[in-house]
Give the backbone structure.
Amino acid sequence: MRKALIVLFVAILWQPSTLTAQTTEQWRDSLALLSRAIERSPHSVELRLRKAAVNLELSQWDYAIEEYGRVLDLDSRNLTALYFRAYAHMQSRHYALAVADYEHILSIVPKHFEAQLGLAMATKKAAGRTETADRFNQLVQLFPDSALAFAARAGYEMELQQWDAALYDWDEAIRLSPKDIGFMVSKVEVLLSLGRKREAKSLLESAIAAGTPRSALKDWLDRCR
């Protein structure tokens, strides 16, 4: 199974920052500058958020968690600190703590899409199938016009080999975002798992006719023989 394609949409949502790319040495220099600035202004939420973002860029999860905690001591409802502390907890496999942070966000903003998605992903690690399924179902119920919501649930259903349910959700994701090649390929994966090679090939040929290079789909075309 091409898991990278299936979960690509999730990875996009979980990028730690939108800062300009720098080298590791440049990030460390930025960290030193921010640390000195914080010494002068220890109650600056903005400086601490910037420092925590650099900690994330350097994969310093524990330092990021600590810094976001200090932000939350200053501003307990800071959504940025809660969201990215949850991200750092996930990277550190502190799944129950990530769940708590996502739930805190949702107590403030119930329809925060990224937090709802993050909560479902964290619950998958921290709890059982029933609770996880409930989280993904809630995601779809809250965002019925979101292709990503259906795709997220479909990805989980594929992990459970619930092929018919996954097929329905991929169809919904494609309906809402018909040009997304990743969704189409994921539906092909389901069709192949169900032994429906003819339908899978037809879907691939439709994508090629719409402009997707045949070479990009070669692996799946070969599996349709």
